[in-house]
Specification:
It is a single chain. By secondary structure, the protein is of the alpha+beta class. Among the domains are: about 1-155 and about 245-260, Distorted Sandwich (Coagulation Factor XIII, Chain A, domain 1); about 325-415, no CATH class. About 20% of the residues lie in helices and about 20% in strands. The protein has 6 helices and 17 strands. It has helices at about 1-15, 160-180, 215-240, 325-335, 355-360, 365-370, and strands spanning about 20-25, 70, 75-80, 90-95, 105-110, 120, 130-140, 150-155, 260, 275, 285, 315, 380, 385-390, 395-400, 405-410, 410-415.
């Protein structure tokens, strides 16, 4: 027994030789003394070259045990522990809500990661509420061609949906229960004061409006609020889903990408937030992959054209989010949830000379690009036939509206109302 304890201690000590995420604690982290599950004392090892433990060292489907709660739009710090930084390299932070099937990049650190060991990141304002995994990946600059990946279980936002659903069901139950003939308060119940057979029943008068009418109106209002919240949630999810996919290499996955010795990876789709700078490309691929972007197989040695900053500052890149393929189908459901729009003085008059150009192609992105907007806000083209959504205070072009709808003054509504 003492021998096993000594062995575990030695393994834990050697784990600090490389790098691992220490805040928040990743799944099965040996650093997490409060975790009740089993520990992985080889946690700083890279993923298997075969990809057998991608993603998350094979732990993405462990029983959920949240290590942190993050609010949309708020800034947090991720910390690393270890000593062997392999002359740095490039890292990414990403979120997944489906146990590692898809990862959406929220931060890219180029060139000197993980030398600093502490990195700030912001949870996107359009990130859905719920249980998620925060993934940290690292491609070392020197040494073996490897991919390091740690994933922590985190809670995004506040799970208010369950409470609202309960309130909705409670209100519905109250109305239905009160309307049941066997309920004591129902007019047809023998013990009800207004029942004809009740001994204290007063002389019958002409029946007025049902007493439960007010409850029915409250119930309809709750249902409408519930539908509006669900539609807004769908819209936020669509915007979040347009974030780029996590870059993957050296683990025999899509694209068959490998990194290049001595070069830091210059991610082809780094996302909205980038820290640092990488010279060259740093990778090559055999085929296309979602994280490479349209028309980029990764085989070219030319560097990517994107704006970055040094490690002491951060700014938004020139990358544009892709539009989900199911936008029109989802929008046909979303449109009915919005009420009467209000005027927006930023929208050009429909007769303006550049109205048609701004409404029919990606010039709309430039049209709204200079606007100041609020995250979650809808921005309409002059003719109302295409739209953008504000994410992290920047417009994201979403494409044409669904058939039978039109975008007007910050809302998408049925065309019959215009």
């Amino acid at each position: 027994m003492k021998g096993l304890v000594l062995l575990a201690s030695l393994l834990a000590g050697s784990a600090s030789a490389h790098m691992q995420m220490s805040k928040p604690y990743p799944i099965r982290s040996p650093l997490n003394k409060d975790s009740k599950g089993e520990k992985d004392y080889s946690y700083t090892n890279p993923l298997q070259a075969s990809g057998s433990d991608y993603p998350c060292k094979g732990y993405a489907k462990d029983e959920f045990e949240s290590q942190a709660t993050y609010k949309q739009g708020s800034k947090y710090t991720m910390e690393l522990e270890g000593s062997a930084t392999h002359d740095g390299g490039s890292c990414q932070l990403a979120l997944t809500y489906d146990q590692g099937k898809t990862f959406k990049v929220i931060e890219s650190m180029l060139g000197s990661c993980p030398i600093d060991k502490k990195y700030d990141f912001t949870i996107p304002s359009d990130a859905p509420d719920g249980e998620a995994l925060l993934a940290w990946t690292w491609f070392n600059k020197v040494g073996n061609r490897e991919m390091y990946m740690n994933c922590a279980m985190v809670t995004i936002g506040s799970d208010s949906k369950g409470k609202q659903d309960s309130a909705h069901k409670s209100a519905q139950h109250t109305v239905e229960h009160a309307n049941h003939p066997n309920h004591p308060n129902h007019p047809n119940h023998p013990n009800h004061p207004n029942h004809p057979n009740h001994p204290n029943h007063p002389p019958m008068k002409q029946a007025g409006p049902p007493k439960n009418m007010e409850h029915e109106h409250e119930h309809k209002d709750l249902v409408h609020q519930h539908e509006q919240r669900d539609m807004t949630g769908q819209m936020k999810t669509m915007s979040f889903d347009s974030l780029p996919e996590l870059f993957v290499a050296n683990v025999d996955q899509a694209g068959k990408c490998v990194t290049i010795e001595g070069e830091a990876v210059n991610f082809p789709m780094p996302g909205d937030n980038v820290v640092g700078k990488a010279e060259g490309k740093g990778y090559k691929c055999e085929s296309n992959a979602p994280f490479l972007g349209a028309g980029d197989s990764g085989s070219s040695d030319s560097s990517s054209n994107k704006t970055t900053t040094d490690s002491s500052s951060k700014k938004t890149t020139n990358s544009t989010r892709s539009v989900p393929s199911n936008t029109s189908e989802s929008m046909s459901k979303i449109a009915s949830a919005f009420g009467t729009p209000s005027a927006d003085p930023r929208v050009l008059n429909g007769q303006s000379s550049n109205s048609q150009e701004a409404s029919t192609n990606n010039a709309f992105s430039a049209y709204v690009g200079g606007w100041t907007c609020t995250s979650g806000e809808i921005l309409c083209a002059p003719d109302g036939m295409s739209w953008a959504m504000c994410s992290n205070e920047q417009p994201v072009y979403m494409g044409p509206v669904a058939a039978g709808t039109i975008c007007r003054f910050g809302s998408i509504v049925a065309t019959r109302g215009w």
